[in-house]
Amino acid sequence: KNLVSSLSGAAVNLVTILATGIPNLVFSLLAMIFSTIFVVADYDRIAAFAGEYTPAGVKKLLGKIWFYLTNTLFVVIRSYVIIMFLTFTELSLLFSFFGIENAVLKAALIAVLDIMPILGTGGIMIPWAVISFVLGYTKLGLELTLIYVIVTVIRNYVEPKIVGTQLGLHPIITLVAMFVGLRLFGFWGLFGLPVGISFL
Fold first, then answer.
1. Mind listing the pLDDT tens digit for each residue in 157-191?
2. Which residues of 64-78 are buried (b: 16+ CB within 10 A; e: fewer)?
3. HEC profile for the chain?
């Protein structure tokens, strides 16, 4: 009885959230689409108007920030492409060494997911190792655990150095900024805080 009551209460709450959330989402999307169309249509006039009434010092600062962010964005992307390629290479070699089937394909999939902090290498490797142990494939489980440890150690050592070098920051500052950014602001903080500190 309590279970049914709890489930029905949760279902009512979910329906309420969806009923109030979907109209807001649709309205926000429509507002975004129309405002984008209007801004694009009159971009030159809006830019000229903003430029006319923006003080020269502020305009210069905004120009520097925009130039820095657009260039830094490519630097950060390049850094993570290097890290992704490094992870792919490590996994391909280790999978092949231990005789794991479809080594290159599996390494490519894990390397792509490794860029996402929520999943990462552990999001695939740890469940895979645990399932292997549970199903009785102890040797495979031990191999996967060893591969995960090797890749994680190398990643944690190399990532701050690569990103820090690209951004012009010391690796320790980069590592702390990435950790704090991830904890405070989630996925975007992982990239945004090191970039912001680099700019400052």
1. 887 777 766 666 676 777 788 778 878 887 677 77
2. eeeeeeeebeeebee
3. CHHHHHHHHHHHHHHHHHHHHHHHHHHHHHHHHHHHHHHHHCHHHHHHHHHHHCCHHHHHHHHHHHHHHHHHHHHHHHHHHHHHHHHHHHHHHHHHHCCCCCHHHHHHHHHHHHCCCCCCCHHHHHHHHHHHHHCCCHHHHHHHHHHHHHHHHHHHHHHHHHHHHHHCCCHHHHHHHHHHHHHHHCHHHHHHHHHHHHHC
User: What's the token pair of residue 193?
Assistant: 């805080």
Q: pTM of the predicted model, to two decimals? A: 0.55
The number of residues in the chain equals 200
* Cα 77 from Cα 196, distance rounded (Å): 15
Contact 165, 149 (CB under 8 A): no
pLDDT of residue 18: 65
Q: Which residues contact 134 (CB under 8 A, 6 or more apart)?
A: none
Q: Single out the residue of 86, 95, 58, 54 nearest to residue 154, CA to CA.
A: 86
Cα–Cα dist 115/121, whole Å: 8
CA 113 to chain centre: 9
